Amino acid sequence: MMENLNQYLPFLIPLAILQFALLGYALHHILTHKYYKRGTRTLWLIVTIGLMSFVGPILYLLLGREDA
After folding, report:
1. Do residues 64 and 44 make contact, with C-beta atoms less than 8 angstroms apart?
2. Under 8 Å between Cβ of 65 and 40
3. 22 and 31 in contact (C-beta within 8 Å)?
4. Alpha helices of 1-68 — where are they, by DSSP H?
5. Phi, psi of 48, deg, nearest 5
6. What are the residue ranges spanned by the domains of the chain?
7. How far apart, in whole angstroms, are the C-alpha atoms of residue 34 and residue 38?
8. What pLDDT shows up at residue 42?
9. How far is CA 31 from the centre of its chain?
10. Coil, helix or strand for 61?
11. For position 2, what pLDDT does the model report?
């Protein structure tokens, strides 16, 4: 089992780093801005944290982030 995991680590480590960086950026943006295209701060926090994989932060950045 451990041999299989070691085989995928070169792919999984950068992917995990990217996932947490994207989550951190989305959370920072949600907490520092007052206006959103759709929804409220609470909604986007729940979506971003609840769907902590790439889905939540990407949904926020595409659908919720106000560019102004």
Report:
1. yes
2. no
3. no
4. 2-32, 41-50, 55-59
5. -70, -45
6. 24-68
7. 12
8. 92
9. 13
10. helix
11. 63
Q: Under a CB-based contact definition with an 8 Å cutoff, are residues 48 and 27 in contact? A: yes
Residue 68 in tokens: 């102004």
Averaged over successive runs of 10 residues, the pLDDT of the chain (68 residues) comes to: 77 87 89 88 88 78 74
CA atoms of 46 and 64, how far apart (whole Å): 13
Contact 56, 46 (CB under 8 A): no
Which burial class, exposed, middle or buried, applies to 11 when counting CB atoms under 10 A from its CB (0-12, 13-18, 19+)? exposed
Sign of CA dihedral 9, 50, 32, 62: positive
Q: Report the C-alpha gap between 48 and 61 in whole angstroms.
A: 10
DSSP bridge pairs for 65: 36
